[in-house]
Specification:
Strands 6-7-8-3-9-10 form a 6-stranded mixed sheet, sandwiched between helices. It has a 5-stranded antiparallel sheet with strand order 13-12-11-14-20, with no helix packed on it. Strands 15-19-16-17-18 form a 5-stranded antiparallel sheet, with no helix packed on it. Helix 5 links the parallel strand 7 and strand 8. The longest helix has 18 residues. The radius of gyration is 24 Å and the shape is globular. It has 2 domains: 220 residues, Rossmann fold; 114 residues, Nucleic acid-binding proteins (OB fold (Dihydrolipoamide Acetyltransferase, E2P), Beta Barrel), CATH 2.40.50.140. The protein is of the alpha+beta class.
Length: 349
């Protein structure tokens, strides 16, 4: 597989280890996302790939080109990698066209700038300066500048973080469409799971300097590797169970599993909030709870359900419903299979 390939990558800031054996693969033409909490090493990973920070060991390769292995290091300017920082970092004294064309050969500049202005949806704005643009327009210009020299790989370091929620949602969809139209290979780093799920073809979840799981957004959401990944991809109900093959015995009765859990053992399973169905009457497979809180969220309602201590359930279960529920007694059953998860392994960092 061509594209970006990272194997057993280690890096540090001084004597402080940051990356602890990172493995990551991004195929040509794919939009990838590295998702993780602040301080987990996401931006350092991007800087190592870009050539701004040295690797201690491991291997970073782009296609057939070795970028860094801790001994040999290709200079950043020879890597054919574009980089979009969080703030865009446009030159304030240059026009939009001059920002986009910065560094391009003079003979190619006019045609390429016009092509990119069309691609990012800003035709006719080449003569403006950055202060005359909105925040979203500035980020699109920063994207165009990074794409101008036709890089083999584009790196985006939380480029939507400073924008308001509505603009962030709109712009990330536009950027994803622009990158797909350009046939670009890109890696976005973010701590926002909604951003990752809506943007990427493949998501790598990072924790304490390591990639703990990489998969499509659908697989990560439905089949996370452990309870920590489950919680990072959205709200999760982690329920105790007796596992045996492809079934789990829980407080909700016998549930099917998404995968074979192997020999009989105790272990937690994941239930997403949308899997919990509420009713006002008891029945087989239903658990009696109390609706403690109901929040309207626009597209649905988020319910906090208090379980009884002797039911073997978390103190609070979370459910999403299309209609509001009054506080008080409610019976809950599960729709769909559960997924067995493990507790996260403690990091050596």
């Amino acid at each position: 597989m061509s594209g970006l390939a990272i194997h057993a990558l280690h890096a540090a800031h001084g004597r402080t280890p940051i990356l602890d054996g990172v493995d990551l693969a991004v195929p040509n033409g794919a939009l990838a996302c590295v998702l993780g909490p602040s301080g987990c090493g996401k931006s350092t990973l991007l800087r190592v790939v870009a050539g701004f920070h040295p690797a201690l060991s491991g291997e970073v390769a782009l296609g057939d080109t070795l970028l860094d292995d801790g001994r040999r290091r290709l200079p950043a300017e020879r890597r054919r990698i574009g980089y979009v920082p969080q703030d865009g970092a446009l030159f304030p004294h240059l026009s939009v066209a001059a920002n986009i064309g910065f560094g391009l050969p003079r003979a190619q500049r006019r045609e390429r700038v016009a092509e990119l202005l069309d691609l990012i949806g800003l035709p006719g704005l080449g003569a403006r300066h950055p202060h005359q643009l909105s925040g979203g327009q500035q980020q699109r210009v920063a994207l165009a500048r990074a794409l101008a020299p036709r890089p083999e790989l584009l790196l985006l370091d939380e480029p939507f973080a400073a924008l308001d929620a509505a603009l962030r949602t709109e712009l990330r969809a536009e950027v994803a469409a622009t990158l797909r139209a350009a046939g670009a290979t890109a890696v976005l780093v973010t701590h926002d799971q909604d951003e990752a799920i809506s943007f990427a073809d493949t998501i790598a979840v990072m924790r304490a300097g390591r990639i703990v799981q990489q998969a499509t957004p659908q697989v990560l959401y439905r089949e996370p590797a452990d309870a920590s990944v489950a919680g990072f991809l959205g709200e999760a109900n982690i329920v105790a169970a007796q596992l045996d093959g492809q079934r789990a015995e829980t407080a909700f009765g016998i549930l099917k599993l998404t995968v074979n859990a192997g020999a009989a053992r105790r272990g937690p399973v994941l239930l997403r909030p949308r899997q919990l169905r509420l009713s006002v009457t008891p029945g087989p497979g239903k658990v009696r709870t109390r609706v403690h809180r109901c929040h309207f969220r626009g597209s649905d309602h988020r319910l906090e359900l208090m379980a009884h201590e002797d039911q073997g359930l978390p103190e609070v279960l979370v459910a999403y419903t299309d209609v509001p529920w009054p506080e008080g007694e409610a019976y809950v059953e599960v729709e769909g299979p559960a997924h067995p998860v493990e507790e996260p392994v403690a990091s050596g960092r």
